[in-house]
Amino acid sequence: LDNGISGFIDAVTAPNALASLRITVAVSAVVALINVVMGTLIAWTLVRDDLPGKRIVNALIDLPFALPTIVASIVLLSLYGPQSPINIHLNATKAGLIVALAFVTLPFVVRSVQPVLIELDRDVEEAAASLGASNMTIFRRIVLPTLTPAIISGAGLAFARAIGEYGSIILIGGNIPRDTQVTSQYIQQQI
């Protein structure tokens, strides 16, 4: 704000600033949608199914909360960077941004949906099944309305975290203005 409101408006409406805002919002929205689907499925599996290694998977969900996000970026760069051991190159691409942001935001959806699924009354589902409702009808009319607030909450948390994320995308995301530079990188570069 050194140059007043007009300086602020000029800085915010600069072509590179607008490009970074578009990329940030678009990638964050895609990541939130991916996490809604995958997070709900993972939460469902952890609550409803008995699988070997369930405790390990449950612990791995919280890994992005415990891990410094720059470490995630280093790991992603070593896996998907220029010298990828698996021959997948996502460095400085939107797909790389999506993978990095999905990793750090997935726990928000899982941990929002999981307690609601635990508390969901299974007797209502069983009653609907005994009255002839199909599994899809039970899910659509009984389970989904109960889960919707938790799913929306988790999606909102994931979207907000993706908007402001810096550490996990700093290395894998690249720094190419108008292509893969997200707003947090652009702001840091301007500072």
Write up this protein:
The structure is a single chain. The chain has 191 residues and is an all-alpha fold. The protein has nine helices and no strands. It has helices at residues 4-12, 15-48, 54-61, 63-66, 69-80, 94-119, 122-130, 135-164, 183-190. Helix 5 packs across helix 6 (94-119). The longest helix is centred in the N-terminal third of the chain and has 34 residues, at 15-48. The chain is elongated. The chain starts with a helix and ends with a helix.
What's this entry about, in short?
The chain has 191 residues and is an all-alpha fold. It has helices at 4-12, 15-48, 54-61, 63-66, 69-80, 94-119, 122-130, 135-164, 183-190.
Radius of gyration over alpha carbons? 20 Å
Low-confidence stretches: none
How many strands, which pairing sense, and closed or not: the largest β-sheet? Answer: none
**Mean of all residue-level pLDDT scores:** 88
What is the N-to-C succession of helices and strands? Answer: HHHHHHHHH
Structural class: mainly alpha
Number of distinct helices: 9
Report the sheet-strand fraction: under 5%
Q: Give the CA-CA distance, first to last residue.
A: 13 Å
Broad shape: elongated
Topology:
Layout: H1 4-12, H2 15-48, H3 54-61, H4 63-66, H5 69-80, H6 94-119, H7 122-130, H8 135-164, H9 183-190
Helix pairs in contact: 2-6, 2-8, 5-6, 6-8, 7-8
